[in-house]
Amino acid sequence: MKLRLKNIFRRGLVKVAQTTGAWIITGGSHAGVMKQVGEAVRDFSMSSSFKGEIVTIGIATWGTVYNRSSLMSPMGSFPAEYVMDEETQGNLSCLNNNHTHFILVDDGTHGKYGVEIPLRTRLEKFISEQTKVKGGVAIKIPIVCVVLEGGPGTLDTIYNAITNGTPCVIVEGSGRVADVIAHVANLPISKISISRIQRKLSTFFKDSYEQFTERKIVEWTKKIQDIVRNRQLLTIFREGKDGQQDIDVAILQAMLKASRYRDHFGHENWDHQLKLAVAWNRVDIAQSEIFTDDHEWKPSDLHPIMAAALIGNKPDFVKLFLEQGVRLKEFVTWDALIYLYENLASSCVFYGKLQKVLQEEKERSAFSKAPKIQMHHVSHVLRELLGDFTQQLYPKPKNTEQHRLSIAVPHIKLNVQGVSLRSLYKRSPGRVTFTMDPVRDLLIWAIVQSRKELAEIIWAQSQDCIAAALACSKILKELSKEETDTDSTEEMLALAEEYEHRAIGVFTECYRKDEERSQKLLVRVSDAWGKTTCLQLALEAKNMNFVSHGGIQAFLTKVWWGKLSVDNELWRVIVCMLFFPLLYTGLITFREKRLQPMTCLSRFRAFFTTPVVIFHLNILSYFTFLCLFAYVLMIDFQAIPSWREYVIYFWLFSLVCEEARQLFYDPDGFGFWKMVSLYLNDFWNKLDVCAILIFIAGLTCRWIPATLYPGRIILSLAFTIFCLRLMHIFTVSKTLGPKIIIVKRMMKDVFFFLFLLAVWVVSFGVAKQAILIHNENRVDWIFRGVVYHSYLTIFGQIPTYIDGVNFNPDQCSPNGTDPYKPKCPEYNGQPLFPEWLTIILLCLYLLFTNILLLNLLIAMFNYTFQQVQAHTDQIWKFQRHDLIEEYHGRPPAPPPFILLNHLQLFVKWVILRKPATRHKQLKEKLEKNEEAALLSWEMYMKENYLQIQQCLRKQNNEQKIQDIAERMDKLTEMLDCDQVKRTGLVEQKLTYLEEQSFQFAKALRWVVQSLSSSGFGSEEDTPVIVPSKAPEMKESPEDEVPESFHALYHVSARHLLYPTSNAIRFPVPDEKVPWEIEFEIYNPLFYSPESQENAVPEFLRDSLDNLSKINFNTMDGDINRQSFHGTYLVEDGLPLNPMGRTGMRGQGILRFFGPNHALHPVVTRWRRNVDGSIYRKNLKKMLEVLVVKFPFSEHWALPGGSLVPGEALPQKLKRVLRREFWPQFQKLLNQGTEIYKGYMDDPRNTDNAWIETVAINVHFEDHNDVEMKRMNSFLQGCDLEVTARWQVVDKRVPLYMNHKELLQKASVLLGASY
Predict the structure, then answer these.
(1) Cβ contacts of residue 494 below 8 Å, gap of 6+?
(2) Alpha-carbon distance 1064 to 1055, whole Å?
(3) Is the separation of the CB atoms in 1153 and 1245 below 8 Å?
(4) Sign, CA torsion 1262/1263/1264/1269
(5) pTM summary value
(6) In this predicted model, what pLDDT tens digit does every residue of 736-771 receive, in sequence order?
(7) Cβ distance 467 to 506 under 8 Å?
(8) CA–CA separation, 707 vs 698, rounded Å?
(9) Residue 635 CA neighbour count, 13 Å, CB half
(10) pLDDT in tens, 936-960
(11) The Cα angle at residue 1088 between residues 1084 and 1090, in degrees rounded to 5
(12) Sequence-separated (6 or more) residues with CB below 8 Å from residue 962
């Protein structure tokens, strides 16, 4: 075998096994194709990072295994130790050690190959009947026989595979059996003759051709004819043919071709093909082979496969199904959505969170088993991810019996009680509940699993796309916090950033087109995303890039200036704020034209309710409060409070009321605890609460005479915190705001730095204190010596007593009795402590703290500054919203006059019970028509954005290079394929011309011979006509079988294995079927069992004992021995089959020698539409036929069978109809049309017994026919085990082959489609 072909085979086989999880079954020995397979698996396992194991099973004959004794162990051992020794193996074979499993078959023989083939055939057939969930879809396990080279045993394997309906891929060019079949696969059966096969064997089996006997060659010819006869199961892999480069493509095409020609009801074969393509993830094959004009797919038929593609993460198929007309609104039902969440990837974080919710519910309800997944469980997890500011996306139903959410969907496993995914969509329309927003539901399902391609396809279908992108970003960021895998975390964050950029892109398109409508998108309440807004989602997800977008900042500026024009200068606003009559001078301009007239009283209200005015009034008020507070603390703090101090208390009360308003103000209906959580999440609110609590504590102490001074101290601390609160006010400034952000970030750096510094301070301080001071027991001075003095040393205040030079005894207490002096070091005229050690410690301490740690702090500050400075503008714009929102909803009067507003709100909320409402500028609920128009416009803008992105990708240089490379590859491939096709076409034309020349020479020779024999000229003058065909290409006369004979051949009657027995027929090739053709080695088995299973005892049956008494070709009593084909030959007392040899003599399991007569009614009616009109296909009417299925039968059949002598109706027909309808059905048969009378090609036929039938068509033209309704009522009246049904007539209906031929004749008679 060529090295290139060997590499293609290895690569393709391993690719199939890796991508589909297929098992590879071989003969297991270390030779031929089995060796190639083993080496391919070994090389892949050693060079690939593939984590799984490629299962390679070797099925071998125990008696042919060399050194098999080493596999046996009395004690049993696994794995077994086996050593290959090819040099001394002789005629036996070593096992290939690269297989993962072995099945060794022992029948007691030694050295006999092929013993394992029957077991292997049964095993493969059993496996093919099992159902496996692959890629989320339940599919029968497909089996493909791949033939590489091969000997006699391989031919038996191929024959058994074809017989069982297993498709085969023959690798041409690999040698021996594979090449023999490949060379004759495209020939008509009449051309596959014994002599041709003999020549092929002599060519491809040069070394072992002498071992082929005449019978063996005949057997090979017969088997190869049967193999080629099933062309739908045969695929020849030729390198370069039709673009075939990999064998995995050929394998999939073989399965699809076999499935396409397999008999199924309705669209089952197309459905099976699509399942195969999805399981193998070959969307290219689905586009070219399945979604063609040959079959019209309904969108509903694709729903189960769509779910499988989603679960299997196959975005290409999802995109294909959407292009084929699948509507997500019809696809996403509650049951389907629950099924998708039941099949979440177990490795994703969302799955773990969902299981945790189920476990918590199990613990609360005290159930023994965890509840099944319902959508309110999913909604609970989603609310954790999106934030508590959103409402439940899937609320928990109040009445679980009535809501469809409570219906549990069975999880699909291997053939679970016949349940399939298709059943989810086969409910009555009244019971199916569709979701509110199917695109949103699928997008969430994909995004929680970080399925990038799937989410991208689904997002492109979404309508509320900006909110969807921002929600996806928020979900991904929250999930990334709990993801343990670093790579997955980075992928999630990258995907979150990508969706933020998509939201920015779409909003940019909207903002360019219409500024006002785009800003409405920001504040529109989205019911689909928990009644929140795009702006709120962006803020919660901390999407700084989105919030800092120019359009959003323009909107925030618009909100900040309220009804004032944004072009007003700030000094004008402050002047008008201080001297409000200037409002009517035109110093201030308004955005709304109606406010421009000076006589309008609403101008005053519009000005003082503007957030920017409210903000500056509050600044003025706050500065006044701080100044008055400072004056009281420093100048006017009396035992009895002055009126100024009472003003401070009143002022503070107004601040407390405002904080309470912020805490209880709940326009969105979040609830008290949620509002508390939101309130405390703000750092500045915490600072306010801290300042107020400290002020109250100081005030309490201040009113107690004994604690007057401590009260003033505490109030001073409160003043300090109130001053820090000023930083929040300055965040609105574009100059100071970013700097405050940098300070906040640096505070975090200082915190971590202090931890490092404390290590050095404490270590040095404790060592210094222990060396210098002996048993200091005063805690305050211990703290001073260890921490305080060590900390001051950093800033240059070095203790004088540390080196003994500058030590002054007057500055310390010798015994530590003076509370205002530290204890003296141990000193007796001179220091008793080691000065050299304390100096070294001091030097090291200063080195690490002053130089190392302080410079580290500077470096940290510098890094933070550089990092924040690059994004300062974005961060400031992002945080600017909080201040704008705060003052947008704040009462207009500043403290302490704000109490008037508080009193008004108290009356409104508490006394009048009016709910709190949010201003429409930040959250607006639109009317349905307006919202629908806005979303349609947003979707249009999204399409523009996607088109622009696609154009940008095409213009990218890397993409251009990649596209050019792909085109060059395709062009090269097309040229190669075209060259191969041209060469093949030329060869075909030359062969055809040669054949025509040869036929012309033969005809001319016949003409010359005829003229010569008629006296025209003498034989000496006859010209010698040389055939134009090349001598080596000339076929012998026996190689040509007339097509007239071919039409009469019976095929099923020559199947090697006789039905219901182990009897094997003698192989009879097509050319040896007629009795007139000599067949010297023909020696068939005589098979006439005296009894047979399931035989009815009272039925008559011929026996060999009364063979001499039988009168053939006449009526023999009640038995009709006459043939519809005339008189048949009787040889040695046995009748001869008029259609020729069958490979078996005797009676077989048939009842009589000679013809066995049968009756097959073909009962038909027209297929009708819903309105009663006749259904048509390609302008032809379509039929429905009555078919039945008997117990233990794999096929459906026409309601007929063998006739018992003396009876008019077959016994099988009587099992279908009730007795009272038999006479009426006999009348229908008499009125019917005979469509066939003659021989039936049946597997039970033998050389001496065969079946002949009469087929009568009983057609009901009218769908209201009384007789048809009566017949339907009498169906299955006798035997309940028999199944009857009306089936649409199609060439793929799973009937017996001879019954399908009768059905075709009936269709032709009625002019119907077939």
Answers:
(1) none
(2) 9
(3) no
(4) positive
(5) 0.71
(6) 777 777 887 888 888 888 888 888 888 888 888 888
(7) no
(8) 9
(9) 6
(10) 999 999 999 999 988 887 777 777 7
(11) 160
(12) none
